[in-house]
Design brief:
The chain is 41% helix and 20% strand. By secondary structure, the chain is of the alpha/beta class. The two termini are 28 Å apart. It binds 5'-O-[(R)-(carboxyoxy)(hydroxy)phosphoryl]adenosine and zinc ion. Zinc ion (ZN) binds next to α4. Zinc ion binds next to α4.
Length: 347
């Protein structure tokens, strides 16, 4: 297909508890989002303080056709105009991944159009470029509920892991602290807004693995420090609300600092001037502000996706899909049949 021709891409993302379907177009090299429908299941999982995999896949089944219809309607296109289908094939929850991926495969068979299986993390890595010009090479920091990973990215297909959390992801840290204190789910957003009412300098947490000669990180120690502090202050339910806000603000501050230190170290080690920060936690207001302020001082460039494209969405999967291998259901035969969910797929 010629670069100048319009290529409509129908994308699916269902790796965890959001079912999302998007329509993108690429024309003369310019990629645009025509629709990006996200069916959140927060209202289902909040009662359990975290994602219940079985409920996530059952609710994905209910969302799968309405999300497709809504995405096509909003984009103003029919299924017949679709030239490419993209879908997350890993990592994530097996049952959840299968719903979006199998819907995508069925549509490919029906239309005789190719499928681009996409790694969810690649979706996050390139998500800022849905709204701005691409910049290569860059250091990528992915901060989400399951990942806290640093990559060196030289092109769409040249992505090298430089460091990662050795235990909890930083989104998980927010989620666990919130659940310990009896605040709701999903916690990152809640902690972020309550932290805005607190003083980030109220408590000083030791930055985990700050001086380790590695780009690896650790967040479970920070979680233990927060829990010990809460116990010292009298325990859950005994602390004043303002003190809880101070704890959230101080925690947010510590996370922003350690993430920045690791990213800046990666940039210095590899002689890279641009950092791209993405994943659900990149919506955090203080993390954005801290990176922006520090970047100004150091003269480096820091890029974030818009907050609504930070958390899981199908538009980012469609974007990555344009640059992946496309597998034709009719011509490739066995290769297409073998496309499957890969819950543990590491980049
Ligand atoms: O990327 P994402 O939507 O899903 C995964 O791939 O995991 O990220 C979800 C994570 C959750 O841990 C959620 O608490 C966190 O992103 N999150 C935030 C904010 N919004 C979502 N964390 C901190 N501040 C936020 N504003
Ligand atoms: Zn994600």
């Amino acid at each position: 297909m010629k670069e100048t021709e319009r290529l409509i891409n129908l994308a699916f993302e269902s790796s965890c508890d959001d079912f999302s379907c998007a329509v993108l177009s690429r024309e003369n090299g310019k990629i645009r989002i025509l629709s990006n429908i996200i069916y959140s299941q927060d209202f289902v999982h909040c009662a359990y303080g975290g994602v219940v995999p079985e409920l996530a896949s059952r609710n994905h089944i209910k969302a799968s056709l309405p999300a497709l219809e809504a995405a096509l309607r909003k984009a103003g296109v029919g299924l017949g105009t679709v030239g490419l289908v993209s879908a997350t094939s890993g990592p994530g929850l097996a049952g959840s991944l299968l719903i979006g991926l199998m819907e995508a495969k069925a549509i490919c068979y029906a239309l005789g159009k190719p499928l681009a299986p996409v790694n969810h993390i690649e979706g996050h890595i390139f998500s800022p470029f849905l709204e701005r010009k691409e910049v290569f090479p860059f250091i990528s920091l992915i901060i989400s509920g399951g990942h806290t990973h640093i990559y060196l990215v030289k092109s769409h297909s040249d992505i090298k892991l430089l460091g990662r959390t050795r235990d909890d992801a930083c989104g998980e840290l927010f989620d666990k602290v919130s659940s310990y204190l009896g605040y709701g789910y999903p916690a990152g957003k809640i902690i972020d807004s309550l932290a805005g009412k607190g003083d980030g300098g109220a408590f000083k947490f030791t930055l985990p693995m700050e001086h380790a000669g590695t780009l690896d990180m650790s967040f479970s120690g920070l979680k233990t420090s927060v829990i010990s502090l809460i116990e010292k202050l009298g325990g859950v339910g005994k602390i004043k609300e303002n003190t809880v806000f101070d704890i959230f603000a101080s925690l947010r501050e510590a996370v922003a600092k350690i993430l920045y230190k690791k990213v800046f170290k990666a940039m210095s080690l590899h002689g890279i001037n641009t950092a791209v920060i993405a994943g659900g936690v990149s919506a955090n207001e203080r993390i954005r502000e801290y990176f922006a302020q520090s970047a100004k001082v150091k003269g480096i460039e820091v890029v974030f996706p818009p907050p609504d494209l930070s958390t899981d969405n199908a538009a980012m999967i469609g974007y990555a899909g344009y640059f992946k291998k496309w597998i034709d259901p009719l011509e490739s035969g066995q290769e297409f049949l073998n496309i499957n969910a890969h819950p543990g797929w590491e980049l």
